[in-house]
Design goal:
The protein is built from four helices and ten strands; from the N terminus they run H-H-H-H-E-E-E-E-E-E-E-E-E-E. It is of the alpha+beta class. The chain has one domain. The chain has a ten-stranded antiparallel beta barrel, surrounded by four helices. Strand 7 and strand 8 form a beta hairpin. It is flat.
């Protein structure tokens, strides 16, 4: 896992040669939205988002999944975090260029999780600080592998741009979380939508524990590519507070 994280970090450094611009991302969003409206299409694919969610639920909400959920919840004593609430704040930076902030909340209940976060980009410019935000709700994630040391999840939801055309797109995620060395673990995650692709990875260290409240410090890197043309990346650090 350490080797994978190092490879990802090298990739991020190499990919960061193109400086991200908040204006470029907004321009790409506006250009795409204008083309879709001009061609008579819907703005941002909100209809496809609804179809996606309907198909998702009908494919998985059957007897097998219900049984798997009951089994997962029954393992609460063995794996306390299988039912938990996580509050996260991670900030990435490319020095003297821009910052990426990700306040995030995730609820875990056996086989299922739901995850909401804001993604802020803050950029220093001659005209002052420019910023943009996306709202990202992973409506349903499936924790299809859950042990004391490893969790693997996939999910789907929607990403909404809080700027320009305010478009929405379906977004898929896949991630793995490991905790092989007591207090030390790691997380790697991929997010993909028409508006943005993202890969991130970080180490996690448990520094606090009081009753059901647990605290972790994180350190890693993140890379984002908007509309297949604008790169954003940075070294990332933060804190995670979990209740389980």
């Amino acid at each position: 896992m350490t080797r994978i994280l190092l490879i990802i970090l090298v990739f991020l450094v190499l990919a960061g040669t193109t400086r991200a611009q908040v204006d470029e991302i907004k321009s790409a969003s506006k250009s795409k939205g204008s083309r879709e409206i001009g061609s008579g299409g819907s703005s941002g694919g909100s209809g496809s988002s609804g179809s996606f969610m309907i198909d998702f639920f009908f494919q998985f909400m059957f007897v097998e999944v219900i049984n798997a959920q009951q089994h997962a919840v029954s393992r609460k004593r063995e794996i306390p975090s299988i039912i938990s609430l996580d509050a996260m704040l991670q900030v990435a930076a490319q020095p003297s260029s821009y910052y990426i902030a990700n306040p995030r909340l995730r609820a875990n209940w056996g086989l299922f999780s739901t995850d909401f976060r804001f993604n802020y980009i803050l950029e220093e410019d001659f005209d002052g600080v420019k910023h943009l935000r996306t709202n990202e709700w992973q409506v349903l994630q499936l924790n299809f592998i859950t042990t004391r040391d490893v969790t693997v999840r996939v999910g789907g939801g929607v990403i909404t741009e809080a700027y320009e055309m305010r478009q929405s797109y379906p977004e898929w995620t896949a991630g793995v979380q490991i905790k092989p060395f007591g207090k030390l673990g790691g997380v790697a995650e991929y997010r993909g939508s028409e508006a943005r692709k993202e890969v991130s990875a970080h180490f996690r260290y448990g520094f606090f524990e009081r009753g059901k409240l647990h605290g972790y410090l994180t350190a890693g890197a993140v890379f984002q590519r908007y509309y297949q043309q604008v790169n954003v990346w940075g070294l990332q650090g933060g804190v995670v507070m979990s209740i389980f």
